[in-house]
Amino acid sequence: MAIVALGALAAIIIIIGLSSSDNGKFSNSPNQNPTVTTPADTSGNKPTETTGPADENTSSDTTASTDTTAPDTTENTPDDTTSSPAPDNPDSPTYANGVPTEAELIRDYKGTILEKTADAGQEYIDDIIFLGDSTTYGLKAYKMLKDEDKTLQVWTPTNGTLSLSRATTDRIYYPDTKEQITVVEAVKKAKPSMMIITLGVNGVATMSEAQFKDAYTELVNSIKKASPDTKIILQSIFPTAKRYDTTKGINNDKINRANVWVADVAKTCGVKYLYTASALLGSDGYYMNDSYQNGDGLHLNEVGFEKELNYIRTHAYN
């Protein structure tokens, strides 16, 4: 028995010695997979602001989507993630709770903001080109304009949303000819009598005030140069509903601040400002009326778009 015990002890010592001599050779077992780091994108291309159809720069599809659910603009990294937002311009007006009222904006942006008018009618709406992101694309998706989902009035890329930071370089779907061209190229072709531009909801997440205003100013000035007679209206960013997930970087505090930036750009560029956000607020005066959103807390439904279009008709550019 003593011999057997000594033999077993020797075997154990040999096994231990072999294990230690491997020096962790088998550490990458199925339960210890090594961490894999994906290389950073070095192409210099910024991510698109949507999870809708393929990006307009790579897709061969020249037919815009007609899905009635507006593309989600919040899943991918928004505009300009390379720098932190700069402090607000101390010269810009500030408002109680961060939400400017229509009356306050009329006071501070007299001559720039469109004030209440008589109802300009459906003919007024039919004469407008709507340029923007997925909050604009919904006008087509919900068939809110002339010719419904075949309307020629909505200009967005084929993926349904236009990035403010790339608005002068990205291609839009130009429905008149079914081409994918830049905004400036489309303006030169169409020479629209009036344009309403709605941009910036993604940009509020990370763009500084200077970045935001510079990008918007560049777009407006390029349109003015391409078509001097086009009446340009910058529309406020719409508020989010209470249910919206603010962890995505977009929230009403940022939107309210950016809407003042949009008004500043309109005033500086000599174009008009439309504070449609005021018509979409709920009774709390801060969040979007829940009955106006399509379920995601960010995009409008048919009722919300009717509110938008009615506000446009009753705040006409005369």
Could you describe the largest sheet, including whether it forms a barrel?
5 strands, parallel
Total number of helical segments? 8
Q: What portion of residues is helical? A: 25-40%
The residue-averaged pLDDT reads: 80
Order of helices and strands: HHHEHEEEHEHEHEH
What is the gist of this entry?
The protein is α/β, with parallel strands linked by helices. The chain is built from 8 helices and 7 strands; from the N terminus they run αααβαβββαβαβαβα. It has a 5-stranded parallel beta sheet with strand order 2-1-5-6-7, sandwiched between helices.
Q: Describe it for me?
A:
- The protein is 31% helix and 9% strand.
- The protein is of the alpha/beta class and 318 residues long.
- The chain has a domain at 100-239 and 248-281 and 301-313: SGNH hydrolase (Rossmann fold, 3-Layer(aba) Sandwich).
- A 5-stranded parallel beta sheet has the order 2-1-5-6-7, sandwiched between helices. It has a two-stranded antiparallel ribbon with strand order 3-4.
- Strand 6 (231-235), helix 7 and strand 7 (272-274) form a beta-alpha-beta unit.
- Helix 6 (209-226) crosses helix 7.
- Mean pLDDT is 80; it is low at 1-6 and 8-87.
